[in-house]
Design brief:
The protein contains twelve helices and twelve strands. It has about 450 residues and is an alpha+beta fold. The protein folds into three domains: about 160 residues, Beta-Lactamase (2-Layer Sandwich); about 80 residues, Helix Hairpins (Orthogonal Bundle); about 150 residues, Heat Shock Protein 90, CATH 3.30.565.10. The strands form three sheets. The protein has a five-stranded antiparallel sheet, sandwiched between helices. The protein has a five-stranded mixed sheet with strand order 7-9-10-12-11. Strands 6-8 form a two-stranded antiparallel sheet. Bound molecules: adenosine-5'-triphosphate and magnesium ion (MG).
Length: about 450
């Protein structure tokens, strides 16, 4: 596998090389079309000025004059009418020049060799040290005609510049490659860390360490990954706690049943004790049955969609029926019950909502004081219905009321532990309310009472 790091470096260096070639081609094209004619013109002017000077000063030594000029950065070829050639300055690499060209200049014409130097993709005529790449002008000195061919001595003129530009280019390239190699490591590092974190997560270790201080997309990714790892850890903890709770809640009635059946087997057990044990066993079996029913319901609620079979029905009616069912218990505990339940129709799942009211009412009865009161009301609020259960029971503190919707959570007070229950009721209630698109809120004060408010959308 080629790592992202290697790919990134190769691609960047590749881009640098390709853009270097493109830049050369474009600047070469610019020289050929724009700079070459200017260069030709400039050198023609210089050549003509030299010729005029030589012409106007017949006393000077022409060869010495050209020698001096070559020292300031020119290469010359002087051809006299007999065809004799004299070179001045640095020698030409390619000295071919046709006789017709020489004749042409000797006859008084100007030769534009720089302008007509052949174009090539990778050839910059500017640097071609050839006799063909010159300007030729006629020159008359002391009554003799010559042809003077001239070109700037690029090597002499640009030697230092050449080196300077060479170093500049080489250093730019080298430094860019080094910087790319290091900066890529910095860019790719968080991805390597994320990969490591994913591996440790999949092996069950949720303690991942990521750099979440970066302000770019990778920082965002690390942040959300961190969040996800935390959520997964919580879920894992919840799952473990859930399993241990279930095991405990199944195990304790089973061992009670076993203990009492052993007692039943003993011949010394009196009939009165027997019937007592049997009723305890029955109670434990009922507890187990309720627990399994609740777990089944929770499992199907967890699967979410399609569990609701909604239809329009009157919740006032439904609540009154549930109250009738528990009237004996309310009377037995000497509780005052008041309600205001006007006919209100909503669209929902009647059997699931039955569970909601059932649990809220049984809680209000179970966790009430003898002689206390319960108030139940329905309020129609345009788009939703508000159902309130208010009791004057044992109440809870703020910390406890935050946790009551957790599975298996039961407030750990001496009083409430003597009351039957699995601690699954309110988590079922909140799941059902959520599936209906509503919400449930609790407000409670220790020793004063509790109020549950359920908001359900009407449709
Ligand atoms: P289950 O409903 O499964 O039979 P449960 O009633 O104990 O068991 P929940 O209905 O989930 O479980 O309630 C969780 C806990 O919240 C209860 O054990 C109780 O401590 C506390 N609680 C719930 N309703 C009230 C209330 N009206 N007043 C005081 N405490 C309450
Ligand atoms: Mg309950």
């Amino acid at each position: 596998m080629r790592s992202l790091y290697v790919k990134f470096v190769v691609v960047t260096v590749g881009i640098m090389i390709v853009s270097g070639i493109l830049a050369f081609l474009i600047s070469n094209m610019y020289y050929q079309h724009k700079l070459k004619p200017l260069n030709d013109q400039k050198n023609t002017t210089i050549a003509l000025e030299i010729a005029t000077f030589a012409n106007e000063h017949p006393t000077i030594n022409l060869k010495e004059y050209l020698d001096h000029l070559s020292e300031v950065g020119y290469q010359f070829l002087l051809v006299d009418h007999t065809g004799e050639k004299s070179f001045f300055g640095a020698s030409f690499r390619d000295k071919t020049l046709s006789n017709t060209t020489k004749e042409y200049v000797l006859n008084g014409n100007i030769y534009h060799g720089i302008l007509h130097f052949p174009q090539g993709t990778f050839v910059t005529g500017f640097f071609a040290n050839e006799l063909k790449n010159t300007i030729g002008v006629p020159l008359t000195h002391n009554g003799k005609s010559y042809a003077l061919f001239l070109r700037p001595d690029i090597k002499l003129l640009f030697n230092e510049m050449h080196l300077l530009f060479g170093w500049l280019l080489a250093l730019t390239l080298l430094l860019s490659i080094i910087i790319v190699i290091f900066s890529t490591k910095y860019l790719v590092k968080p991805i390597t860390k994320l990969t490591k974190a994913t591996k440790s997560l999949s092996s069950g270790d949720f303690k991942v360490e990521l750099d979440t201080t970066r302000h770019d997309e990778l920082g965002e990714l690390s942040k959300s990954f961190h969040g996800m790892a935390k959520k997964l850890e919580q879920l894992d903890d919840m799952r473990k706690e859930f399993i241990s709770n279930i095991s405990h809640d199944i195990q304790s009635p089973l061992s009670n049943i076993q203990g009492y059946t052993n007692l039943l087997e003993q011949e010394s057990t009196s009939p009165k004790e027997r019937s007592n044990y049997i009723s305890i066993i029955n109670g434990e079996i009922k507890r187990l049955s309720i627990l399994t029913k609740q777990l089944l319901l929770l499992a199907s609620l967890d699967r979410n969609e399609d569990i609701l079979t909604k239809k329009p029905f009157q919740i006032g009616e439904q609540l009154k029926e549930i109250i009738r069912n528990y009237q004996w218990w309310i009377n037995e505990k000497d509780i005052m019950l008041g309600y205001s339940l006007p006919d209100t129709e909503i669209i929902g799942d009647p059997s699931l909502l039955h569970n909601v009211w059932d649990n809220l009412l049984t809680n209000a009865i179970k966790y009430n004081k003898s002689g206390g009161s319960i108030d139940i009301s329905i309020e129609d609020r345009d788009t939703f219905v508000l159902v309130t259960f208010r009791d004057t029971g044992i109440g809870m503190n703020a910390l406890e009321s935050e946790r009551i919707f957790d599975r298996f959570y039961r407030v750990d007070t001496a009083r409430s532990q003597t009351i039957e229950g699995t601690g699954l009721g309110l988590s079922i209630v909140s799941s059902i309310v959520r599936l209906h698109g509503g919400q449930i809120k609790v407000n409670s004060k220790e020793k004063e009472g509790t109020t549950f408010r359920v908001e359900l959308p009407k449709i």
